[in-house]
């Protein structure tokens, strides 16, 4: 638990329903980006309570204004 407590954003969080399986070899602990990143739909983000930063919200508002 220290990473998710120290992270100022909602980028790091624990998921109780997803536990890492046990590993027995040292090489099995090496994770590449393909194993660390999983796609998240916008609906799933909102269900987790992840909110936009003020900068992100301003950027989105600027993109949505009619030209």
UniProtKB/TrEMBL annotation:
It comes from the Eukaryota. Residues 40-67 are annotated as: Disordered. This is 4Fe-4S ferredoxin-type domain-containing protein. It comes from Tanacetum cinerariifolium (Dalmatian daisy).
């Amino acid at each position: 638990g220290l990473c998710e407590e120290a992270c100022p954003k909602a980028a790091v969080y624990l998921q109780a329903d997803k536990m890492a399986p046990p590993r027995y070899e040292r090489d099995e602990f090496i994770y590449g980006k393909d194993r660390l990143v999983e796609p998240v739909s916008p609906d799933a983000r909102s269900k987790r309570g992840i909110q936009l930063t003020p900068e992100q919200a301003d950027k989105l508002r600027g993109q949505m204004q009619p030209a």
